[in-house]
Structures are given as C-alpha cells and as structure tokens.
Specification:
Length: 377
C-alpha cells in the first residue's frame, strides 16, 4: 500500500478537531501567560513548536505499516518502564516532584507516554486472551500486573494524579474488553475499601489537597488558594464571558498555573458559559469519534486500543474540568491540546495518530494467524 492510498483512508476528523483545539489552546496560552499590559508571545511560540512537532508525530505514527503498532506494543511498554526508573534515579526535581528527564532545554515527562504504553499493552493482552463470555478474575490478574508496575513507579515520583489515570484507563478498558460484571463489581468494591488506607500513604501536601477539596475555605491563602481563585475565574465569566484578553484572574496573576493545569479557568473567564460549552462539544466530538472507531473495528487489538485511547482522553477531560470547577481534588492533569506542555502535546497527537492508523483496519477480519485480511478499503 502506497502513501497516497493511506492518506485517502485517513480519518481526517480526528486531526481537524485536534488542530481546532490546539488553536484554542494557543489563543488561551497567549492570554493566560501575559502579565497585565505585557504580551505572552514567548510561551505561545514554544507551544506552537510543540504543536508542529506533535503533528509530525501524528503522521509518523499514522504511516507505520499495518500491524506494526501491535507488534512493538510490549517493547514500547518496557522502554517506557525503563524511562520511569531513570526518572526515579536521575530525574529533574521541580516543585517537590521528580517527574522529568532533562534533554537540554527540553524536559521529557515519561509518565505521559506511560499512559499510552499501558493502553496499548492492555489492548494487546486483552485481544490475545479474548474469549466469548468475557474475562474472569484469573484472566484479569495479568492485566492488573501491567497497570500496577507503572502505577507504583509514577506514584513514587510522587504523582498520584497521573498514577490514578492508569486505574481509570484499566477500568474503562475492562468494560471495552468485556470483563465480566461480577469481576468489575469485585474490583470496584476492593477499590472503595482501599481508599481509607491510601490516606496513610499520602504525603502531607497530598492530604492537604484532599482536605481542601472538601473545604477550600479552611486555608484560603494556602492549600485552598488554587481552587478558590479558579472558581472565581470560572464564575466571573458569566454567560457570555468578559471577552478575549479581558480576563483579570490570569493577567493579574491571581490564578496560579493559568497556562497549564488551570488553563480552562482562563478560557471560562473570557468566553463564559457559551464558549465553555463549545469547547466541551469539541472534546465530546473527539471522544465520540474514538468510540465510533472502537465499535466499527472488526480487529480486536484495533478496537480495544481505540477504546483505550478514548478512555485516556475522556479521563483527562473530566478530571481537569472537575478539578478547575472545584469538583475534584487538585492534581496535575492537563487539559488535552489546551494546556501548555510538550510531553502532553506529543502524547496526545501520537495517540490520535495511532487511532487513525488502527482505524485503517476497521473493515478487516482476523485470519487464523491473528493478522487482519483486508476485505474493503
């Protein structure tokens, strides 16, 4: 198959929606990074570079040969685990967390890539072990091992927010892969029972975040400051918003992390409820398309992987928006394509490139050797 034919079968919808979100993110980064009266072009230039690199990553993954992603899944997973170990041994420390590997001016955050590596590894395992009637407890245990190792490595950084994403991805993919309802209920009950014990393993600042989530006013100038200022920004936007570049919470530096974790608060203040609703619709269109590819695919690995990527994006969107609105504890979860960040942008674009690549096999049936046989283009 030559490249023109691959371009002809490209799912352009994924890329177009992602680029629209990137454009919104660029505008928001400019507004959120400026100080009152001083433009924020430096950050926008960097983010534009990440977007262009991300688009290159999208096409690089898309043009991989059919079946190649499935073949390298476990190797990619092991490589990312190695990077997570390197982070713990020689990673860059910032803000009390050791999450980055420095490559000159670029800081690589392996935990972002680990989310996709776990998604593909689970898809490979579930597709290889699939049987009619669903997965029982014994069959699910190795999948738990796939998730547990990166979960512990990321939690040790410490980054409980990103570590928690692995659990959401596992839960979502368990549903996609048809794990039996009794098994899902068992793990849900076990998870709920383990929540109180988790408190004793948290660091002090993590406990403060949980307490602040329940009562932000208990420390309005300390642990509760992020949430209070974020809710002020979102609420002050009203129905129509204050207008682009007219927000005050970001430009006057009342709102912390306004270009990364709390980027949505800047957007909501300037564009209001209507703008926020439009942004949410764009995200829902993206997730809906990924689930559509999940249902349409007749190749199990492609179906499970697309479903996992959909869960990956949905988890980030829901947690970030809930966090900004004070409905979830403050964790370092970026809003896809809108929050500033190189590792996040590369991961998101490459994940969509993988979905577009795998969607080329949505009209194939598996042969006896597990490889797809094309029956329609």
């Amino acid at each position: 198959m030559n490249r023109p034919s691959k371009l002809g079968r490209m799912d352009w919808f994924l890329l177009v929606v992602a680029l629209i979100l990137c454009g919104i993110g660029l505008m928001n980064a400019y507004s959120g990074s400026r100080v009152h009266g001083v433009p924020g072009t430096a950050l926008v230039t960097k983010q534009l570079a990440w977007i262009l690199l991300g688009v290159a990553g999208f096409f690089a993954v898309y043009f991989l040969s059919d079946g190649f992603i499935e073949e390298i899944t476990y190797g990619f997973f092991l490589a990312v685990l190695l990077l997570l170990v390197v982070v713990l041994l020689a990673g860059r420390v910032r803000g009390g967390a050791q999450r980055w590997i420095a490559f000159g001016a670029f800081n690589l955050q392996p935990s972002e890539f680990a989310k996709i590596a776990v998604t593909f590894a689970l898809a490979r395992y579930f597709s290889g072990k699939y049987r009619y009637g669903g997965f029982g407890l014994v069959e699910v245990l190795p999948a738990i091992g796939i998730v547990l190792v990166p979960f512990l490595l990321v939690a040790l950084q410490p980054d409980l927010g990103s570590a928690g994403v692995f659990l959401f991805i596992f839960a979502g993919m368990a549903v996609v892969a048809c794990v039996r309802g009794k098994v899902l209920g068992f793990f849900a009950g076990a998870g709920a029972a383990a929540i109180p014990a988790l408190w004793f393993f948290m660091k002090d600042y993590q406990r403060q975040r949980v307490l602040t989530f329940m009562d932000p006013e208990r420390d309005p100038l300390g642990a509760g400051y992020h949430v209070i200022q974020s809710k002020i920004a979102v609420g002050s936007g009203g129905f129509f918003g204050k207008g682009y570049l007219q927000g005050t919470q970001g430009s006057l530096r009342f709102l912390p992390e306004q270009h990364t974790d709390f980027a949505f608060a800047v957007f909501a203040e300037e564009w209001g409820f209507l703008g926020s609703l439009l942004l949410l619709v764009l995200f829902l269109l993206l997730v809906h398309r990924l689930f559509f590819l999940t249902v349409r695919s007749q190749d199990r690995f492609a179906s499970f992987a697309c479903g996992g990527i959909a869960v990956f994006f949905l988890t980030h969107i829901v947690i970030n928006l809930a966090m900004v609105c004070g409905l979830f504890p403050v964790v370092g979860i970026p809003l896809p394509f809108v929050s500033y960040g190189g590792s996040s942008m590369l991961t998101n674009m490459m994940a969509l490139g993988a979905a577009a690549n795998l969607s080329r096999s949505r009209f194939t049936f598996q042969g006896g050797g597990g490889k797809g046989r094309e029956i329609a283009s």
